[in-house]
Write a structure and sequence with these properties.
By secondary structure, the protein is of the alpha/beta class. The protein contains 9 helices and 14 strands. A 5-stranded mixed beta sheet has the order 4-3-5-14-6, covered by helices on one side. The protein has a 5-stranded mixed beta sheet with strand order 11-8-12-7-13. A two-stranded antiparallel sheet has the order 1-2. α1 packs across α4 and α4 packs across α9. The protein is elongated.
Length: 299
């Protein structure tokens, strides 16, 4: 415990540039701060700070030690925040953003159960398919599907899903036969505007080989539901996740096309700004969603 106090004193001196300011920050006297730093140097057997009447500077040993000490204190603060959030009772408004189709089909049935479990939490749900900025737009949590971009956000994988290439029996009955991937270039395609792959669709064969086809959509929509509706109306081929079209395939309203070709699975994540000072309501929601999707209904 004494060494932790010494590390706190040393780190505060470096961060604030003086013993006086460090003393004010830690609510201790300058003499106590000075003593703690001297004791630390004595224990380590090395000088950490160069002291003159005008300024302080770190020695080479002090610079390396400061970086490690800062990380230790940051880790301790994070551990304390996590323990506090775990023990605290979830309360207050929780703002969540999620994709439109997935939110309506698979998240909406869960909200009532969550509210029963945590009666002091209020939910504000926003559904859209654009990539929102959680911090700038004031969201506590987002559910995102697909590859995550490099970001400072923290994520937890909730589930995965497969992509399904399919069309209605009516469309397939009147269209040209589809026997290979390149045949798709001659067919009517219902394209999802936000898909990261655009008009270039890459699949893997059963042997693990990669094959690509460039499609020519006659229909674009920024809603998977709209693409699905067009496919059900015999207008063409869609490439959509099983959570959206899986039931249609099971009922025979849509038929898989070239099932020997597969797309990489889609991961579904809960994303939130930071582990540090994570509120109990966010932690409760992330844990709740992870439990809810252990065995997803579309699998």
């Amino acid at each position: 415990m004494d060494q932790l106090r010494q590390i706190e004193a040393f780190t505060a001196v470096v961060q604030h540039g003086s013993f006086v300011k460090a003393a004010d920050r830690l609510n201790l006297s300058k003499a106590v701060i000075s003593r703690l730093v001297l004791e630390l140097e004595s224990q380590l057997g090395t000088r950490l700070l160069n002291r003159t009447t005008r300024r302080l500077s770190l020695t080479d040993s002090g610079s390396a030690y400061f970086e490690r000490c800062k990380q230790i204190l940051d880790d301790l603060a994070e551990a304390n925040a996590e323990a506090s959030a775990t023990s605290a009772k979830p309360t207050g408004r929780l703002r969540i953003n999620a994709p439109l189709s997935f939110g309506n089909l698979h998240l909406a049935p869960l909200w009532g159960e969550f509210l029963k479990l945590y009666p002091e939490v209020e939910l504000e749900i926003t559904l859209n398919d654009r990539m929102v900025d959680l911090v700038d737009e004031g969201f506590d949590l987002a559910v995102r599907i697909g590859r995550l971009q490099a970001t400072s956000m923290v994520s937890r994988r909730l589930a995965s899903d497969r992509m399904v290439l399919c069309a209605s029996p009516g469309y397939l009955a009147r269209a040209e036969p589809i026997t290979c991937l390149q045949d798709l270039a001659r067919h009517s395609v219902m394209a999802y505007s936000y898909a990261s792959w655009g008009d270039t669709w890459t699949f893997e064969t059963a042997e693990g080989q990669s094959e690509t086809v460039t499609v020519k959509p006659r229909f674009w929509a920024n809603s998977g539901d709209t693409c699905r509706a067009a496919a059900l109306a015999d207008q063409g081929i869609v490439l959509q996740p099983a959570f959206l079209v899986g039931e249609d395939v099971r009922l025979g309203h849509l038929v898989p096309v070239l099932p020997q070709y597969q797309r990489p699975p889609l991961d579904i994540h809960a994303v939130y700004p930071s582990r540090k000072h994570l509120s109990s309501k966010v932690r409760a929601m992330v844990d709740f969603l992870a439990q809810a999707f252990q065995q997803p209904g579309w699998a």
